[in-house]
Amino acid sequence: QVQLVESGGGLVQPGGSLRISCVASGSIFSINTMGWYRQAPGKQRELVALMGSGGGTTYAESVKERFTISRDNTKNSVYLQMRSLKPEDTAVYYCNARLRRTVVSDLGNYWGQGTQVTVSS
After folding, report:
1. How far apart are CA 109 and CA 98, in angstroms?
2. Count of other CB atoms within 10 angstroms of residue 116
């Protein structure tokens, strides 16, 4: 069994910063990509940022230059540092990991339960 647990969400004023974290635990052999998606009310879930096991990153255009993703592979963790936050960044942020549970497993796609980020004055 694999669990992804997010933390660090909350209420922040426009222009502020926030860091959210996610740790993966359980039966894990290797993690390919880890990253973040978000879903605002009435909208589809969208990619925010991803990082591969080798350090390569992908960002949504709307967050480039403001958000930074990082990983600690020794802790099976991924982080998202968010700066210059805008009201339109308000959403539930979901951690995602594509990983193998054993050496012979296919890559599986796993999600956390989400953490709310609200940007409002």
Report:
1. 5
2. 12
Of residues 44, 37, 32, 46, the one with CA closest to residue 6: 37
Percent of the chain scoring above 70 in pLDDT: 100
User: Rounded distance, CA 36 to CA 38, Å?
Assistant: 7
Return the half-sphere exposure (C-beta side, CA atoms, 13 A cut-off) of residue 82: 32
**Where does residue 53 rank: exposed (0-12), middle (13-18), buried (19+ CB within 10 A)?**
middle
Q: What secondary structure does DSSP assign to 22-50, as a single string?
A: EEEEES-SEEEEEEEEEE-TTS--EEEEE
pLDDT in tens, 16-67: 999 999 999 999 999 999 999 999 999 999 999 999 999 999 999 999 999 9
- Whole-angstrom Cα distance, residue 17 to residue 32? 28
- Does residue 74 sit in helix, strand or coil? helix
